[in-house]
Amino acid sequence: MSTAQTFNQRPAAPTELDTEAAWAAFARHNAASLAETIHLRTGATIQMRAIQPSDAERLQEFHARLSPDTIVMRYFRVAPVLHAQDAWRLTHLDYDRRMALVATIGEGQDERIIGVVRYEPLSDTEGELAFVVEDDWQGQGISTKALSRLLRYARRHGYTAMSAVTMANNVRMRDVLTHTEYPCATRYEDGCLRVTLDISQPGSAHA
Q1: How do residues 91-103 score in pLDDT, each as one tens digit?
Q2: Fewest CB atoms within 10 A around its CB: which of 22, 108, 117, 120?
Q3: CB-based contacts of 33, cutoff 8 Å, min separation 6
Q4: Domain for residue 113, yes or no?
Q5: In this model, does residue 12 exceed pLDDT 50?
């Protein structure tokens, strides 16, 4: 199953968590404590935090700013619109088996999502990764830093492996995945590349 299938070819349906339950999970896992300031390679400063149930509209706006090429690289298909039901599902998480971090700029009503990294469960111990960064912010280290933090979080929550499927020509995603602090294995599937990270042991470095 490809990353695109895992995240975007399920029937659009309400998440198993309503807004109250999602906020309760956010509080239970102390997700607010994950917020931090990140310094990029260019010297720019952004914020990184756990996604929130209130981010659905921000996530739709973020998706609308992505170029067609970036959308295809992320979703394996043309998907110019992130529909409300999908945005709801992607922002209402349990912060355990399903988790996402967002990179943002601005504050309050002006806060804007510029990157997302997330995992969904494949089994009790393995998850599937996906990440995407707004075009103007690509190549500045956002994916690398966000992925490092997400993998450590996943390990604390019982995962021992994380995998992702990427198009063979998606050099940036491939490089991010194969240059984490964890051992990785790669194999080709149906013309795409699956990268599996062994996160059963602590990583060798921190981004």
Answers
A1: 999 999 999 999 9
A2: 108
A3: none
A4: yes
A5: no
CATH of the domain at 79: 3.40.630.30
Give a yes or no: residue 206 inside a domain: no
Closest by alpha carbon to 91, among 58, 48, 129, 124? 58
Q: Are strands 126-133 and 161-167 parallel, antiparallel or unpaired?
A: parallel
For residues 167 and 170, give the distance between their C-alpha atoms in angstroms, rounded to a whole number: 5
Question: Domain of 26?
Answer: 3-159
- State which amino acid sits at residue 180: T
CB proximity list for 41: less than 8 A, separation 6 or greater: 140, 141
Indicate the number of domains in the chain: 1
Q: What is the pTM of this model?
A: 0.89
* Long-range residue pairs from 28-37, CB within 8 A, at least 24 positions apart, any chain: 28/95, 29/95, 29/96, 31/95, 34/101, 34/149, 34/153
